[in-house]
């Protein structure tokens, strides 16, 4: 089937006595499905080793306290960040693939241009083609990912980067079966669940039932995410971003999502942003005033096709002061998106 406009994990770790999910309060509260699945994949691995009979958690279940940069206790090392980075004093021994912190120039944001840009993007999305999925098929998404981590090793905290990696995920159209291949799971790991799909763990079928009227859609998003995140507007923007990155919305729904985003206060335009694959584009962005982190949805400047997303620290610091302005906390570049007939089948194989 057709691959969509562009779409895309962590290095190995020391042996552990157990893996405990936690949060880093200094980092932003937008939860990307990338981080949810990553954390749950690690939990599944450790449960399989330490307690084979333990009940498996839902890998797609929304975790209200889970931040986009997840914190995990790893034996003698504590990870308080996850993604890609480039800076001073990296802890290369903390994890294979760790390197300098990824940074970027902070571009100015235009508070006046976002609505017009989103209107243009919504029109392009409305006219785009997307395959129809049927029962038994899977949504395949391939992406390049990286980000920033803060590691504490023997009491010393340092910001490090994880090398750019290719991530491949498959999710059944009903949302109950999944498969993930990434840096830590080279042979793949099942991410099956019995939980019902929802806004923060959507399936193809769930998306097909969402309203395509922008006002009705935005009302549903605000209602169902009430009380989550740093505030209703930030949470609505994050939720729409998650839907754009980790699912395959129809042209009608994608258009409605962009029109709904234009109604969220604080949305801006950034004339130049770079995705994880190094592609320059124009961005629709929103700054979280509480954390100083700006989330940017990046689009091709000519075709306005969705390329990916990144989050950048633009004001203040986080991660105990180690994440400074200009640090790229998370970056993603979508390289393929398609409907396929089974797990481990790619868009190229299905074409």
Q: Helix/strand/pairing class, anyone?
A: alpha+beta
Number of helices: 7
Poorly predicted regions = 1-94
Strand content: 25-35%
Average the pLDDT over all residues and give the rounded result: 77
Largest sheet: 14 strands, antiparallel
How many domains? The number is 1
Order of helices and strands: EHEEEEHEEEEHHHHEEEEEH
| Terminal Cα span | 5 Å
Shape: globular
Helix content: 10-25%
- DSSP summary, beta strand count: 14
What's the gyration radius in Å? 19 Å
What does this structure look like?
This is CU044_5270 family protein. The chain crosses the membrane at residues 64-84. Keywords: Membrane, Transmembrane, Transmembrane helix. With 351 residues, the protein is of the alpha+beta class. It has one domain. It is built from seven helices and 14 strands. Strands 1, 2, 3, 4, 5, 6, 7, 8, 9, 10, 11, 12, 13 and 14 form a 14-stranded antiparallel beta sheet that branches. Helix 2 runs antiparallel to helix 6 (251-261) and helix 4 crosses helix 6 (251-261). The longest helix has 18 residues, at 33-50.
Summarize the structure.
The chain has helices at 33-50, 114-127, 204-208, 214-224, 232-245, 251-261, 347-350; strands spanning 19-22, 71-74, 77-79, 98-99, 109-110, 138-153, 156-172, 178-181, 189-190, 267-274, 280-288, 293-299, 306-313, 328-340. It has 351 residues and is α+β, with helices and mostly antiparallel strands.
């Amino acid at each position: 089937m057709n691959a969509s406009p562009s779409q895309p994990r962590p290095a190995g770790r020391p042996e552990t006595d157990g893996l405990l999910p936690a949060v880093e309060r200094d980092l932003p509260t937008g939860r990307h499905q990338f981080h949810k699945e990553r954390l749950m994949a690690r939990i599944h691995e450790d449960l399989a080793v330490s307690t084979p009979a333990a009940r498996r958690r839902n890998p797609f279940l929304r975790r209200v306290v889970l931040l986009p940069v997840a914190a995990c206790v790893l034996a003698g090392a504590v990870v308080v960040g996850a993604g890609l980075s480039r800076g001073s004093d990296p802890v290369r021994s903390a994890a294979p693939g760790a390197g300098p912190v990824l940074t970027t120039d902070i571009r100015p944001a235009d508070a006046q241009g976002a609505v017009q840009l989103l209107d243009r993007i919504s029109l392009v999305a409305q006219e785009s083609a997307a395959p129809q999925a049927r029962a038994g098929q899977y949504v395949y998404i391939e992406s390049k990912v990286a980000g920033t981590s803060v590691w504490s090793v023997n009491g010393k905290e340092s910001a490090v980067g994880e090398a750019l990696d290719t991530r491949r995920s498959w999710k059944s159209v009903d949302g109950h079966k999944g498969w993930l291949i990434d840096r830590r799971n080279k042979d793949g790991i099942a991410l099956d669940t019995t939980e019902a799909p929802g806004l923060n763990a959507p399936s193809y079928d769930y998306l097909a039932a969402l309203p395509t009227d922008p006002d009705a859609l935005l009302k549903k998003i605000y209602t169902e995410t009430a009380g989550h995140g740093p505030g209703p507007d930030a949470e609505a923007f994050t939720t729409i971003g998650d839907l754009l990155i980790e699912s395959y919305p129809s042209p009608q729904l994608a258009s409605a999502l962009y029109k709904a985003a234009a109604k969220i206060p604080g949305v801006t335009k950034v004339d130049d942003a770079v995705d994880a694959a190094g592609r320059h584009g124009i961005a629709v962005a929103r700054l979280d005033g509480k954390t100083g982190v700006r989330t940017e949805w990046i689009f091709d400047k000519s075709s306005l096709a969705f390329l990916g997303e990144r989050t950048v620290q633009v004001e203040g610091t986080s991660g105990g002061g180690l994440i400074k302005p200009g640090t790229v906390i998370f970056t993603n570049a979508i390289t393929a998106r398609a409907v396929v007939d089974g797990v481990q089948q790619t868009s190229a194989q299905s074409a």
